[in-house]
Specification:
Blueprint: E1 2-7, E2 10-15, E3 19-23, E4 32-35, E5 38-43, E6 46-49, E7 58-68, E8 72-78, E9 83-89, E10 92-102
Antiparallel strand pairs: 1-2, 1-5, 3-10, 4-7, 5-6, 7-10, 8-9
Length: about 100
């Protein structure tokens, strides 16, 4: 059984027991959250697709960690102009462990 959920403007395919990193969510480590934007669920009975989401469906997950991704380096160079610009960015994330998928 797996589900397709939407969080942080992105879509993820999840199954029970999976760990995934999503955009930063509010909550403490160890707390349980409920993701209600479930787009589709696949189980033994077949595929159930929402329009756009499935009413009453939810995915329960536990927050495992909050952290920051590796640094992405931004480097701009304009030839013959003596212009160099360097910057970096580290995006925050929340790591989730999927506990239950309910339709």
């Amino acid at each position: 059984m797996y589900a397709i959920i939407k969080t942080g403007g992105k879509q993820y395919t999840v199954a029970v027991g999976d760990k995934l990193r999503v955009e930063s969510l509010a909550g403490e480590v160890g707390s349980q959250i409920e993701l209600t934007q479930v787009l589709a669920i696949k189980d033994d009975a077949g595929m159930k697709v929402g329009a756009p989401t499935i009413e009453g469906a939810a995915v329960k997950a536990t927050i495992v960690a909050n952290g920051r991704h590796e640094k992405v380096r931004i480097f701009k160079f304009r030839r013959r102009k003596h212009s160099i610009k360097s910057a970096g960015h580290r995006q925050n994330y929340t790591e989730l462990k999927i506990d239950e998928i309910s339709a």
